[in-house]
From TrEMBL:
<dbReference type="GO" id="GO:0005576">
    <property type="term" value="C:extracellular region"/>
</dbReference>
<keyword id="KW-0964">Secreted</keyword>
<dbReference type="InterPro" id="IPR036908">
    <property type="entry name" value="RlpA-like_sf"/>
</dbReference>
<comment type="similarity">
    <text>Belongs to the cerato-platanin family.</text>
</comment>
<protein>
    <submittedName>
        <fullName>Cerato-platanin-related secreted protein</fullName>
    </submittedName>
</protein>
<dbReference type="InterPro" id="IPR010829">
    <property type="entry name" value="Cerato-platanin"/>
</dbReference>
<dbReference type="Pfam" id="PF07249">
    <property type="entry name" value="Cerato-platanin"/>
</dbReference>
Length: 205
């Protein structure tokens, strides 16, 4: 005699079902994101079986949807944390000197230094005068030497090449701040900008 397990899996009729001994049955829902098993459903009628399968399928779908939403939300938060940030920008006329020596900066020599890359003066840098000190550069031979930053103020953006250490925000050439503020560097003194790191190639490196 076939058991209820056999009957639930197909080729059954009501007479056979009534006479079949209740046995433990396990099923695998292999078409969804995971394998779900149910045991001891033998005593249930065939009418209950579809709803049981549907319940497990619904559970699989909802679990998958929840995980996807959580992962996407986490990724979005991480992206926001590493993208545009509000920082202070001010000017330092030191960096306007075309003949200024890179040997006086944190990005002089060393494996990450700009002299090592073949530059010697401020004016030799490909992005001059859009250069300056960046707080991401924390000391000599910083991995952030030569990093490129898009800074935006009042809807206008320029790219700053990081070549020296800054305690906070950006200290850039006056010419760079004048370009960003339409000639208002001296009048404004400092401004709050949105800063986003971009590929160094954007600044010519």
């Amino acid at each position: 005699m076939r058991t209820r397990t056999d009957l639930y899996l197909g080729n059954w009729n009501s007479k056979e079902l009534n006479n079949a001994p209740p046995t433990s049955m396990a099923f695998s829902e292999v078409n969804d994101i995971d394998i779900y098993k149910a045991w001891d459903i033998g005593p249930y009628s065939p009418a209950h079986a579809p709803s049981l399968f549907s319940s497990f399928r619904l559970h699989a779908v909802l679990t998958n949807l929840t995980n996807v939403v959580i992962m996407k939300f986490t990724a979005a938060i991480a992206l926001l944390a590493t993208s545009a940030a509000a920082v202070r920008l001010q000017y330092d006329p030191t960096y306007d000197n075309r003949d200024g020596s890179l040997g006086t900066t944190a990005c002089s020599d060393g494996p990450n230094g700009l002299i090592t890359k073949g530059f010697s003066t401020f004016g030799s840098l490909p992005n001059f005068p859009r250069i300056g000190a960046v707080d991401a550069i924390t000391g000599w031979n910083s991995p952030q030497c030569g990093s490129c930053w898009q800074v935006t103020w009042n809807g206008k953006s320029i790219n700053i090449l990081g070549m020296d250490v800054a305690g906070n925000g950006f200290n850039v050439a006056q010419a760079a701040m004048d370009e960003l503020t339409d000639g208002q560097a001296v009048a404004l003194g400092n401004i709050d900008v949105q800063a986003t790191q971009v590929d160094a190639s954007v600044c010519g490196l």
